[in-house]
């Protein structure tokens, strides 16, 4: 976000945010019980504050809250809560109004469908609360997603004797994808553990901690004007998108997931075969 | 949700919700400016209310708000706002605190990665605010996702002369997947329109309206105890998961996306070839 933008949102918090937080002070008092229709009418006219205020958060605490959140209510809740619980403590209102349970749904990429990794769903939703500029948000998501595809999960280690599902070191794997289905399958192939066993669950708990920590790292650096993107896309994305992506001859798809995880690789010396395949 | 659960959440709204809504009545008044530290301290100790209260919503309005939301701020915002804007109007607080911009991120499945369809991301996040029981939430997501994979998008038609990107009827296609990448590619193959052109954008705007309407339909039926799931999974999911899914011999993956969209179909008369392929 630009300097002007940042000033704007800080200013906005100093007015709207402070008044709103002050309002909460009388919650439960005698003033809390009358005139709720008027309140509704007034409130409906107002645009809610956005983005919400951010303060520097603790990366190590994000790991612990993320891991414990996974063990309590799965990956999406865990990663989301790693950011939101800290903001609830450090900023208070309006974070205190929003329960982290609103992100229960993302576990297993949604009802067992294994789409986008739930830890990522929770993480980027938390990011979105505190980053208002869409182009900046996209850069942070790009970096988080890109990092996820290349990171040897899991790295976080719970304290000895305190593991939620399985003690000790676990095999690691690189997902090469942001999809739960691929991330879990690759780890099973590498580790030989079962997809629904306690070791895989432990792996996803630790992955949640890793994702939560990276998210807080990115937000801390962004909000202190130190964010520098480093992720580069797999070659296949660039190559395939030369013909299939935006502004190309065909322009018949979109995406940044590694093409050859699902599609056959194309022999660049024999493009004609690929073109006339169907 | 069970009858007991529903009573619980209604009762909870009649107390917590009413007090909270009443509190907002004094917003901006003289009581709004003092004691904000106390408010924060009190608020940090409290568990935010969950789930949030639901009232029956208007399916046709969901289409209009969803479509207009897409044109303003893309698919994920559009579908989310189709539910939340109505709840902001009809219920008021706490919906008035949460801006629909918290779901900007899901457009294009996240920063152009084309993972889970952004309209679905927005829709199920809205669902999660008003459905507290995870097993019920999963059933509703299952139904919404399943419906999405078989529905000939787009069906919604904006009023003549009021289309955001392209007027007139558009070709339809069935995605067979909940992924943005597949959904867009299939529509491009069917329609011959370009993936980043204005017709495809129009198609996604109307799809957002369709998804928003289905979401409100599901929530209305769930909250009036009339929800009956109808979706059945593609054969491939059942067949492949016999060996690869939970409780099977291999149990080395998870997911409910149609397997043969990415993997080669297996000849059930020649399973040995498949098994020894790698």
List the helices and strands and how they pair.
The structure is a homodimer of 278-residue chains.
Chain A: H1 3-24, H2 36-45, H3 59-90, H4 118-130, H5 134-150, E1 152-153, E2 173-174, H6 180-191, H7 198-223, H8 235-244, H9 271-275
Antiparallel strand pairs in A: 1-2
Helix pairs in contact in A: 3-4, 3-7, 4-5, 4-7, 5-7
Describe the structure in your own words.
The structure is a homodimer of 278-residue chains. The first copy, chain A, has helices at residues 3-24, 36-45, 59-90, 118-130, 134-150, 180-191, 198-223, 235-244, 271-275; strands at residues 152-153, 173-174. By secondary structure, chain A is mainly α. In chain A, strands 1-2 form a two-stranded antiparallel ribbon. In chain A, helix 5 (134-150) packs antiparallel against helix 7 (198-223). The longest helix of chain A has 32 residues, at 59-90. The radius of gyration of chain A is 22 Å and the shape is globular. In chain A, 51% of the residues are buried. Residues 1-44 of chain A have low confidence and may be disordered. At the A-B interface, helix 1, helix 2, helix 3, helix 4 and helix 5 of A face helix 1, helix 2, helix 3, helix 4 and helix 5 of B.
